[in-house]
Fold these 3 entries.
Entry 1:
Amino acid sequence: MVIGDVDAPTLTRSVGRAMPARDAVDVATGALEFLTDKTLPDMVHGKIVRVDIPHGRLVGLDTTAARAMPGVVAVLTASDVPRNIQGVVVPDRPVLIDGRIRQLGDPVALVAAETLAEAEAAAAAVSVELEPLPAVSDPQLALDPESPRLHQGGNLLMELHHERGDVETALANAAVVVDEVFHTQAQEHVCLEPGGGVGVYTNGLFTIWIGTQYPGGTQQDVSWALGVEPDDVRIISTPMGGAFGAKVDGPVAIFLALLAKATERPVRIVLTREEVMNTGTKRHPFRVHTRLGLDAEGGIVAVATDALVDAGPYASFSPAVLKVSGETSTGPYRTETASFRGRAVYTNNGNGGGFRGYGVPQVAFAIETAILEGARRLGLDAVEVKRRNMLRPGDPHGLYGHIVGPSFRATEALDAIVGHPWWRDREEWKQQASGPWLRGTGIGAALKGCGYGSGRGDHAGARLAIGTDGSITIWAGPNHSGTGVDAAYAQVAADTLGRPYEDIDIRVGDTELVPESGSSAASRSLYVGGSAVMTACRELMARIDELGLEAPIDWAEAGRRLAEAGRALVEATFVAPDVEDLGPLSAADVERYSPHRVYGSAVQVARIEINRYTGEIAVRGVACAVDCGVAVNPAGVIGQTEGGIIQGLGWALMEDFKYEDGVPQTKSLETYLIPTAGDIPELDTILVESEEESGPFGAKGIAEVVLVPTAPAIVAAIHDATGVTVDRLPASPEAVYRLMRESAA
Amino acid sequence: MRVNGTAVTTPDPARRLLDFLRDDLGLIGAKEGCGMGECGACTVLVDGDPVCSCLVLVGQVAATDVVTVEGIGDDHRLHPVQEAFVDHYASQCGFCTPGVVVSVAGLLAKNPRPAEADVREALEGNLCRCTGYQAIFRAVASVAE
Ligand code: FES
Ligand code: FES
C-alpha cells in the first residue's frame, strides 16, 4: 500500500515502478560471478595465520618450516608491511601483528601457495609463540585505571556529550521518571558470502577485486599500508554476497595487495565462516541508562541517556556509531530538554563496527521501552504517548535543537500503523488465543538520518558518457552492495533524460571509473548517489539544449554533435545539503555531532504469540510503515523493509554473539542462529511517501531505519501479552520465561 | 556420475562435491557459505533430493544424477522458478539464490502445488540474510499456482 502527498507516477515514467535488480537473471541462473568466485590464470591461494588468544603478546614467530613446505610461494610477516597500521577513522590496528594481540584471530602472517590445501598446510606450520594476558572483557571494568590498557591512550576510545536545557531540573519536576538500564548484545552480520577476493600486481599497479561497501576507503587503506599512491590501487568491488556494514572496512584487501606484490602472481583469499565470525565486525553491545521524564498527560519533559558501548579491540567505525546513537537517543520525539553521554570503550571482545542501523537500534530499544513503562505508570496508552510527542517537520530536534526537515512523516507512519488491522483488531485477536499461547500486539517507532550528516561534506559523483549512437553509460556510486541500488540509479537517469529504463547502462563499484562517492552506508546510496546521477543527466540535457535540436531529440545525432564538440563526457558531483536552521548549535557542534537535515522514519506493529509455559515466542505478523520520501523503486523499498524487519527480529529474539573472557562462543552458524524460513511472520509494508526536496525525485534513504522498530515493537507486544518488560536483548525463551515467573511471584 | 545430464569422471573420490563442481567443472552457481551444512548456499539435487554439496564427497555420489542451478533451466529458457525469482524480486545480494532455487525446484518436482508450510519446510536449510524470505515465498507461490 502507498499513502502520501505525492503525484502518482504515470506508467511512462520509470520512477515509481517496481524493477528487479539489474543482475537478477544472472543471480537466478547462477551465472553471476561473485568476486570470491573469481579465478585468474596462474593464481595462487592465500591463507592468513591467526592467533587463538584474545589478548597477549606475540613473542616468537618462526616461518622457516612453512617456507619449506611444498607449493609455498610466499610467507609474509609484519616486517614485510611497508606501513603496518590501518583504520579508516582511527588508525589503531596493525595489518599484521608485531607485538600486542587484542583479538582472537588477529593475523600474524600471510601465506601464499599453489593450492589452497598447500596454503592451509603451510599456515598451520608457522610456529607462533604467544604470551597470554588477562582479557579485558567488561567495558565498565575496562575503564578502571587498574585494567590493562589495550591502546596507548587508554581504553576510552571516545566520549561524546551534549545537553540541551537543564535535564536535572526537568526530571525533578516530571510527574514520573522512568529510570532504567537496558542491555543489548552483539549481533553478527552473517553475510551469506563470508568475503575475500583476488589481487593482482602488475607494472606497479594493484588491482583488487573485493566486495567492499566503501571502495574509496579500501583504496586508501591499501595505498597507505603499501606506501603507494591511491591512484596506483584500483578496487573493483561488486558483486558481493551481502554487506549490512560488515564490508565497510576490513584488512583483506591489504593482505591481497601484499601477497600479490610479493608473489607477482594473482592471489585469491576466501575467508572461512569461522574467520569472519571471530574477527569481523559486530553490532556494538550497549548498556544504556535511560531517564525519561513525563508530565501527567504523557508529554516528554526530559530524556537523559548514558550509553556505555563495547567497541572491542579496534576503533573501526565506533566513533561514528556513537554520534548516531546520540542523535537518535531521543527517538522520533519532541522534547526541549535532553542529554546524551556516550562512551565507546576498547575491550578484547568482538570488534564493534558498522551494522545496518549504526547505533540506533540500541538506543531506540531503550527509549521505546522507557515510554512503554512511563505510560503504564501514568495509566496512559503508550501509543497515545508516542503520538502526542511525535516529532514533526519544522520541529527542533530533541537533543540538538536543529530543525527537522520538511519531508519527515513519522506521524503519518504512526497513523498508518494505528489504522492497520493488526493493531485495530488486536483485542479481538488476543481473545482468540488458545492452548498455552498468549497473544500480544505492540508498536515501535524510530528515525534515522539519511547520509553522513552535516559538516561532513557528504557527496557522491557520477560520470556520464553519451555515445555517437546515442547510448548512455553512467558510472555511479555508492556501490551496489546487495541492495540493487543501481536499478534505482537507472530509473532516476531514465526519467531525467526522458528515455526508457532499458536505454541506461549503469556501472558501479570500480574506483578507476566511478568518481569518489563514499560508502554504500548511512542510508545514503540512493539519496546522495541518485542525486549525483540526476545532476549529471541534467547537465547532459543542458548541453543538448544548446545544440538546438528539434524535438523529439535524435539521441544519436546529439551524441555525434557532442562528441565532435568534445562534450560527450559529463562529470557531476552532488553535495548533500547540511542542516539549514541550526537552532542553538554552533558550527563546532555541527562538526562534533553531524546532525541531519533529512530523516527517514519507520513505525511497526508486531503481533506475537508466547508460550506461557516455556517463554517461546512466535512472531505472527509485522507491518511496517516506512517514511521513504518517493519510492523510486518500490520493489527495492519493500525488499529492504522486509529484510530489515527480519534482521531486527533476529536481534530481538535469538541472535546473540557471545564471548567468554574475550573468546567467541558462537563462531559458527550452528551456534549463532539467525532467522530461517520457518521463523518468518506475515509481513506488510506501507510506503508513506512525501517529496524530499534534496533527494532524487523526492527520495530518501530507508534501508537502516526499517530494522530499528522491530525489537521495540516485539518487546511492547510481549508486555501486552504478559505484563513483563524486557530490558535486555535478546528476548530468549529462557529470559522471557524467567521474567514471567518473577512477575507472577 | 552425471552432472546436469552430462556424464563426468571424477578423479578423486575424497574430494568434496562442492569443490569438484566449482573448481574442476567451473560450475560456480553452488556457493560456500559455511562449509558445514548450515547455510544451504551449496545446495544441489542428488537424484532429485536437495543435498548440501559441502558435506558430501564425490565418492559418495559416484553413481548419481547431480543437478546444479546451472542445470535447472535449459539453454534457451529459464526454469519457471528462476523466472519467478526475477519477477518477484526474490533476491537481493543473490548469494543464497542458487541454493534456494535448487531447493525449490526439487520441491516442485515432487510436489507441484505445495502449501506455504511445505515451502517453509523445504527452505528450512537455506539461509537468506537479505530478503526476509517473504519475497521468496511469493515467488514460489506464483509458480505453484
Ligand atoms: S556451504 Fe554447504 S551448507 Fe553452507
Ligand atoms: S539474497 Fe542475500 S542472502 Fe539471500
Note: Residues B 32-35, 37-42, 52, 54 surround FE2/S2 (inorganic) cluster (ligand 1) (CB under 6 Å).
Entry 2:
Amino acid sequence: MQSALVVVIMSFIVFSGVFLVGDPVEILVSDDADQEEREMMIKSMGLDKPFLVQYGIFISKAVRGDLGDSFVFQEPALLLILDRMPATMELAVVALLIAIIFGIPLGVWAGLKPESLASKSIMTGSILGFSLPTFWVGIMMILLFAVLLGWLPSTGRGDVQIILGMPISVFSWDGFSHVLMPAVNLALFKLSMVIRLARAGTREVMHQDYIKFARAKGLKESRIILVHVLKNILIPVVTVLGLEFGGLVAFSVVTETVFAWPGMGKLLIDSIGLLDRPIIVAYLMIIVFLFVFINLVVDICYSILDPRVRLEDIKS
Amino acid sequence: MSFSDSPTLEVKDLKTYFFTKGGIARAVDGVSFSVGRGKVLGLVGESGSGKTVTGFSILGLVDEPGRIVSGEILYRGENLVSASMGRMRELRGLNISMIFQDPMMTLNPVLRIDTQMIEAIQAHEKISKDDARQRARDVLGQVGIASPDERLRAYPHQFSGGMRQRVAIAIALLNKPDLIVADEPTTALDVTIQGQILYEVQKLCSQTGTALIWITHDLSVVAGLADDICVMYAGRIVEQGSVNSVLDNPRHPYTHGLISSVPSRNRRGVPLAQIPGMAPSLLKLPKGCSFGPRCPQVTADCGIIPNISMLDKGRQLRCHNPLDALVSPKLKD
Ligand SMILES: Nc1ncnc2c1ncn2[C@@H]1O[C@H](COP(=O)(O)OP(=O)(O)OP(=O)(O)O)[C@@H](O)[C@H]1O
Ligand SMILES: [Mg+2]
C-alpha cells in the first residue's frame, strides 16, 4: 500500500522535474527545419499540450506498462532500458559480491585484532575507498591495468552468453576480464562500507556476554566467529547493503560512463545529453520501482536473520 | 594423600589485576581456597568484591585489560594458569563449566536454544545431533522447563529471565562437569524454582561428585547449600571455614556485619543492622585492612594489612581484632 503511494508520488516528482529541465525540441529539431516542420514535430511528441494533460496521458499509459516512446530512437523507452538492464544488473551484482566477499572477512579481521598493523592498513584503505571519487579511481585503473600493464581491456563488455534468457558475460574469461575493472571500481565504496560495518559489529559483539559464555562452553574459536559473531553482524550488513543495492545500480552511471559499459546508466547519460525525456522518465521510474522492491526483499531477509523481527510486523 | 582425596580445585594465592587507565585494580588479590569432590563452596561478598573475576580466572576467561598476575589454579593437580589455550578449551564446558550472572545476556539472541545446547555437547564428543538433542531435552526437563521439545526450537527472546537462567544452568550441566562455577545462578528465579534448582544441583554433586563454587549475596542460600564458605572483601578473602562454624561464630567484623543484615525470624521487630559506609573503589583502597574505615573494631594496627591466621578446624581469618564467639548472632534456625 505504502509502496504504491511512493511510486505515484515519485512519478509526479520525476515527471515535473524532467519537464522543467529543458526543451528537447531545440536539440532534436534540425537547424534548417522550418516553422511548420517544427510544429509537427512538437505535436507528434505531444509537447504542445499543457503540463497536467501531458502528465495525465503519461500516467494513463504508464499503468498499462507504456512509458512512452524515445524521441531519438522512436522505440518504447521501457524496452530500450530493459534491453540494457542485464548489463547494469550484472555489473551491480558482481560489485555487490566483491563488496561482500572481501568486505566481511576484512572487516571481521579488523574487528578481532583492532591494534594489529594489518587491521590498521585495512581501515586506512577503507577511508581511501570512501573518499576517492569513483570516476577518478576508474580512470587511474584504466591507466594502470589497461594502458600501462595491458592486463585488462579498458572498455566494453566482451563476450556475452545467453543464460536464462539474459545476456551475461562473467562466465567466459573474455567477459570476466571486461567486467572485473568496472565492477571493482563500482564496488570500492560499498566495500569500504561493508568493512566498517563488519568491523564495528565484530567489536561490539565480541564484548557481549554471550560470546564469553560460548567460550565457557568450550567452543572452538572458529565456531564462535563463524556462527556466533557472524550471524549477529550479518543483520546490519545485510540491511544496509540491501538498501544500498539500489544506490549501486543508480551510481553505476559514473562507472558505466568511464568504462563505456553498455548498461542503462550509459543510456541515461546519452539521453540526458539529447533531452530524450521519455527515456529519462522511464529510467527514473524503473529506479524507483527497484528501490521499493529492494526494500521489501531486505525486510524479508531481515526477518529471516533476526528472529526477534517477525514477518507479520513487516506486512502491517 | 591418595588421588581421590585430593581436592577437585585448589586455588593458591591467586592475583588477578586489571590494568586500567586510572591505575591497577586488584580485583582478586591473593585468594586461596579449595573445593573437594562433591563439595559446595559458597563465595560471598558485597558487589565489586571480586567474586565474578575469581570465577572467570578459574575458567581462563579474564578479558583485557585484566590478567592473572600470579598464583596457581590447580584442577586435579594440573595448573590452569600455565595451561595452553587449547587445553583450556578442552576443559571448559566439559570438566569445568560456569553459569553466568546475567541471564539476559548469556544466550546468543540470534541462535535457537537447541543450536546453543547441541554445540556445547558436540564441542567435546563425537555424538550425533539427534542424541545430543535428546540429552539437551532431558537436562532442560531436569531444570524444570515444561515441554522441553518445543522449547528447544525457540529463541532466547521468547523466554523470561528466569527461564533463560535455567537454560544457562542446563547448559552448564550438559556434560556432567567435575566443577561448576555458579555465579549468582538463582537470583533471577522465584523461590519454588530456586528450590528445584538447588535440589537438582545438590543431587548432581552427591551423585557424580561434582564440586561446586556457588557465588552469591544471599547468605541464607549458602547456609542451606554450602559445606564451606569464603567471605570476600575488596579482592581478598577475609574469613573462611566450614559454613556452620563461620555463620554460627563469625570472627571477622565484616562477616558479622553481613550476617546481621540478613532478616531473621528470631529478631523480628529489631531494626536490621547495616554495615556503615560503602564498598571502596579498588583504585583507591584504604591503606592496610580495606575494611578498616567501615569497621567498628578498627584500631591503629589496622593500618597494616593483617596476615592470614589459622584458627582451629581449618578456619582462616584476616583480622587484627577478631570478634570472640559471644557477640555473634545466629543466622541458622
Ligand atoms: N573489565 C574490567 N576492567 C576494569 N576493572 C574491572 C573489570 N572487570 C572487573 N573489574 C574490577 O573488578 C572488581 C570486581 O568485580 P567482580 O565483577 O568480580 O565483582 P563481584 O564480586 O562479582 O560483584 P557483583 O556482586 O556485583 O557481581 C570490580 O570492582 C572492578 O573494579
Ligand atoms: Mg559478579
Note: Chain A touches chain B through 23 residues (CB under 8 Å).
Entry 3:
Amino acid sequence: MSARFDLNDDSVVVVIGSGAGGGTLSAALTAAGVDVVCLEAGGQVAIEQDLPTMYGRVKWADTRLSEGDLNPALPVFIAKAVGGTSIVWGGVALRIQPHEFAARTNYGEVAGAALADWPMSYAEMDPWYAQAEQRLGVTGTHGNPFLPDHNNATLLKLGARELGYTQVSNGHMAINAADRDGRPACRQFGFCAGGCVIGAKWSSLHAELPKARASGRFELRERAMAVAIEHDDAGRASGVVYVDADGKRQRQRARVVCLAANGIETPRLLLLSASGRFPKGLANGSGLVGHHYMTDLLGRAIAIMPGRVDNYRGTTYSSLVADDMRHDPARGFVGGYLFVPRGIHLPTYVNEPRADGWGAEYAEVMEAYTNMASAALIGEDLPVYDNRITLDGETLDQYGNPVPVIHKRYHDNDRALVAHGLERAADIYRALGATQVFTRASNVAIHNLGTCRLSKDPADGVCNAYGATHEVPNLFVSDGSQFVTSGAAPPTLTIAALALRQADHIVSQLRAGTI
Amino acid sequence: MPSSPLAFSARRRLLLTGVAGALAGSLDLTFKLPAAAASPPDLVVYDAPAARTLLAVCRTLFPHDALGDAPYMECVRAIDAAAADAGFRASIDAALARLPADFAAADQAVRERALSVLRDTPAFGALRGAAGKLYRNPAVWPHFDYPGPSLAFGGWVDRKMLDLEWLPAETLQLSEVTSS
Ligand SMILES: Cc1cc2nc3c(=O)[nH]c(=O)nc-3n(C[C@H](O)[C@H](O)[C@H](O)COP(=O)(O)OP(=O)(O)OC[C@H]3O[C@@H](n4cnc5c(N)ncnc54)[C@H](O)[C@@H]3O)c2cc1C
Ligand code: SF4
C-alpha cells in the first residue's frame, strides 16, 4: 500500500536515502503515524547469485575523486539502489563498546587526531541497541540462535584458541538463523555480499522498506537524486530539490528533512546547499561538515591451508574473535580491532591474496583456491581533521553539481593497529599449519563515517545528540555521518540504533509542535 | 612495531617465493576443457597475429596449463571489445609494441620477464584485469573445484559445511566450545 504525496504537501518528513539508516528511520516514523516521502537516487535491483554482475548493478558509479591513501580508481564501495548498501552488507552487527563512547577521555590526547567523546553515554544508547538487535534479529542476542559453523569460521576460531584467545564465538549477525519477522532462515548460499536472494539477511530492502510501505504512509521515489535542501526565511529546512527518473527537477516541500545518503553524499549535499544565509553550506556554521572522515580500518588475511577449506560454503561472514577489541595502549596504539572470517568466491579471489598478483607463482596460489582460509580485520580509525569530503572546483557530475573529493590519509595509529592485527591473523593461520599467508590493508572504504559528527557544543560538531543539526532544528542527519569515533565494530547496528532513537525524538518533537 | 605496515609489498613478494614448490603435488590438475572449445577468434579490432600475442599475454598472466585456450580467448575478446575505444587501443598497442616479436612462442619464464617491463603502465593493469576475468568463466570452475552458485540445490544448509578432516584430532576437539 504505497502512499502518494503532493509535491506541495509540507506536512511530510522527507528522508533522503533508502539504505540502512533511511530505511530504518522511515519504517519507525511511519509506524508512529508520520507521513514519509523517501527520495532514493538508485532504482530497484533484482538480486541474483552472481557476485561480479551484482556489484556492477548496485555500485555507486557517479564520479568522485580521491586524494590520499584510498584507491584512486575505487576509493569507496557503496550502493546506489533501493535499499542502499544494506543490500550487500555482510551482516556483522556489533555494538560500539562503552569505553569507545568516551574515546577522548579514555584514550587521552592523540597528536594529529581530533578525538572527542560522544555527546551521549553508552548507558543512554543501551536500550536503543537492544531494540535494534531485536529488530534486526541479531544472532546470539535476545534469544536468537547462533548461525551454524562452517570450515572457514571454524579455522579462524580454532587458530585463535591455539594462540590463547578467549573471546571467540559464533558472532552476532543480522542474519536469520531461524525463520522470524516474516523472513526465512539462512540457507547458507554463501553469496551474502551480492545481496541475499531470500532475504534471510537483514537489509533495508527486505526488512524495513516493506514495513514502511505496509503502513500506508510511505512513498518511495526511486531514481530521485536530491541535489539541494532549501530553507525558509526563518532558516528552517523547507523542502528538497531533486532530479527525477526523467531528468526533471522537482521540489518536494517538507516539515522535516532527514539526510541518510551515506557518509560522503550526506555532507556533500549540505555543502551543495549553501545559500546567502549559510554561505559555507547548510548547517555548516562550525565549518566541520565533511571533516573527520573515518572509514574503519580494514585488513585481510588469506591463508593456504594443508587441506581443503571450501570457504565458498555458507555465510560470507559469521563468528567473531573479539579479544583485541579492547583498548590497550601497551600494544602501541589506541583503540582496538576484531577478526571475522570472510568467505571468498573464485570469481573475486584473483584480487585477494594480492591486488596485483600474476605469473606462474600467483597461478599456483589460484590453484590452491579450495585450500584457502580467509579472515577480515576491522578496527578503529581515528578522526583526523584533514580527512574530509570537499567539492571539486572543476569536475561536475551528470546532474551538473561539483563531484566530491575524498581526502583520506592514515594516521600513524591506524598503521600500527593494522600491522599488529595482520601479524596476529597470520599467526592464527600458521598455528594450524598454513603453508602461505598473505596479509594486506584494504584501501577501498566500505564504511563512511564522522562527516557531520555529533557534539554537545555547536563549535565541535554538526549535530546534537539526536542528529538534529545545531543550526537548522528540523534538519536531521540519519546515517554514519553522525559518528564521533568509529569504534572497532562495523557501523550498521549503531546506525540502526541511532535511527530508532532519532525517530522517537522526531515523533515527540512533532507532537509537541517544536519542529 | 613495523614501520610501514600498510605497504606489505616487500613482504608479500617474499611470501610468494616458493609457492610453486609448496603446492605442487597437493593438487589435482587432471581436468581439461574439451579441445573442441578452442574456437577461432571472431575479433573486430585485432588481427590474427595480435590476437595470438594477446592470448599469450593472458596465458602468461594467469597460466593454468590444464586449461585450453578457449577461456583465455574469452579474455582476449573482452580486450578486443574494449579496444573499440581509440584511447584504450592506443595504450594496449603501445604496450604490445614493447614485447619481443617472438613473445607468443617463448616459454613462461621469458614471457614473464618481458611482461614485467610493462608492469607500471596503465595498459598492464587493463590487461591484468581482462585476463583475471578468466575466473569468472563458469567453464573454468570445475578445474578449481569451485561449484558456483548454490541456489539451484537450496544452499549448503543441509549439506556438509564442516569437514576439516585434515586437522589433528586434538585441535578439532576445541571446536566443541565455539558457540558462546
Ligand atoms: C561489501 C560491504 C560489506 C559490509 N558489511 C558490513 C557488516 O558486516 N557490518 C556492518 O555493520 N556494516 C557493513 N557494511 C556497511 C553497511 O553497508 C553500511 O554501514 C550501511 O549500509 C550504511 O547505511 P546508510 O543508510 O548510511 O547508507 P546506504 O545503505 O549506502 O544508503 C544510502 C542511500 O542513499 C542514496 N543516496 C545517496 N545520495 C543520494 C541523494 N543525493 N539523493 C537520493 N538518494 C541518495 C544511495 O543511493 C543509497 O541507497 C558493509 C558495506 C559493504 C560495501
Ligand atoms: S548465506 Fe544466508 S544470509 Fe547469506 S545470502 Fe545466503 S541465505 Fe542470505
Note: Chain A has eleven helices and 17 strands.
